[in-house]
Amino acid sequence: MRTSQRSNTLLGLATVAVLLISGSTAVFAGAPVPILPEAVKSAVEGERSCVRPAQEMRRSHMDDLKHQRDDTVHEGVRTKRFALKECIDCHVTNDANGEKVSIKSREHFCNACHSYTGVTLDCWDCHASQPGGGQ
Amino acid sequence: MSKQIDSTLADHPVDGARRDFIKQSAAATGAALASGVLLYTGDATAKPIDEPISARQRWGILVDTTKCADGCNDCVTACGKENGWSNVEHDPRPKTDAQWIRTVEIRNKLTGSEHSLPLMCQHCENPPCADVCPTGASFRREDGIVLVDKHICIGCRYCMMACPYKARSFVHEAIENQIPYAPRGKGTVESCTMCVHRVDDDRDPACVEACNHKALVFGDLKDPNSEISKQMRTHTTKELRADLGLNTGVRYKGL
After folding, report:
1. ipTM of the prediction greater than 0.85, yes or no
2. Any CB–CB contact under 8 A between A112 and chain B?
3. Cβ distance of B53 and A125 shorter than 8 Å
4. Contact B180 A125 (CB under 8 A)
5. Which of B112, B155, B206, B222 is the most exposed place for a label (fewest CB within 10 A)?
6. Domain segments of chain A: what residues?
């Protein structure tokens, strides 16, 4: 009796697990994913990588940028590793005509993800969103 | 007293290598002076980019109004170009467009003497703009440069009211195509930064570099050997509205 109860419970759990997995797969498969433009150059010399692994950058680039901005504005620290200008220099995107796109374009590296996630940024109200802008 | 000195010397035997180094340095300096090429080596070596600024320096600008030519606008043009504030797409609106630096003509009513001079943020030691700022966005860097941290500026414009020099501007309209090292945007207050991006890179501000009349001198007010300190030691200089006790970093000669 006990054994059959246990096996029933296990069967139930397994069913739930299978449902969950298949359900989630179905959801992910149907949603559009952001198209991320490739960086034009590598931040780390000789390697095709960013200043930190991509997974970390996706999660916490805003913390790095915020920390750097305070250090730069108030203390004059001008290291390049987490400087916004350096992000832009690497991640600049060219459109079909070979022109650098501004933040207004969905092809812009930052905009590609942020428009997908519905995050409105005000970095670009002040900062240049293309290398060498205005010059 | 002499005994004390003797004992101190005895406790610290002469460091041969150090003495040699000093001798060589002295010789090198002498040679440079003799050739007449290297008379002024400038301020201390440039700060490494990963080190914070310190209060060992206080940056200042000395304006020689006797050399400042009538009708010359080179410093203003250079500033506008360097920092992108003169690059307006609409028709000029002098009352509201940003002005980080302007030339001012002054005339003494009694004597009739006239002067032309550039007027910008005076980079006060006790800046009234920072006093009134409700968010801490207006602040003075350790090295004396007064800035707006636009990340925390809410655009209330109290600082503009407090500044006795009318040195600050408000950005009324959205801006595009900013210059990467000079971010500026709608809803924030801005003013002369003493070209802080250049100063951190051990270069002179754009206005100083652009002045063909050598009327502007930039340097470290705390370094007695800097050009600006030497000139301030040998000439009478004035700060504008000295009665306010702000101890400005920008000084004027010949007023």
Report:
1. no
2. no
3. no
4. no
5. B112
6. 54-122
